[in-house]
Amino acid sequence: MSRLLAAAVFAVSLLLSAWVQGGPTAAPPNAYLYIGWPNDGQTLPAGKPFKVWFGLRNMGVAPKDVKYPNTGHHHLLIDVDLPPMDKEIPNDRNHLHFGAGETEAMIELAPGKHTLQLLMGDDKHIPTNPPVYSKRITIYVK
């Protein structure tokens, strides 16, 4: 039984290491990405846009198509898990791109429980290596 468990742990560790590898663009190992507003667990009024403020330390922001060391641009993930780390980040209503270098956005969400998470992408919208992403927060719109 312990050999089977060891094999399973090894297989999972290989999958996780491949998953978190990121794309070809290097990011500083101490880069820190976070959502400055709203706060985790916050309740916001329905029917009104609200600001999401993007926080970033030890890394710079550059627009899409601008390749400069230790920079990237923000992607806001709404109600989804992190995408594959070695492929272009999707561009849809759940994966918002901020390719002009924006550091905040006004969004409006339907009433209910929602998750928000930030992910840095390189000049081609591929996550950096190592991937730089925020903690996922939960908000409530009522």
UniProtKB/TrEMBL annotation:
Residue ranges annotated for the DUF4399 domain, each copy included: 52-142
Keywords for this protein: Signal
Signal peptide: 1-22
One Pfam family named in its UniProt record: DUF4399
Protein name as catalogued: DUF4399 domain-containing protein
UniProt organism field: Cupriavidus taiwanensis (strain DSM 17343 / BCRC 17206 / CCUG 44338 / CIP 107171 / LMG 19424 / R1) (Ralstonia taiwanensis (strain LMG 19424))
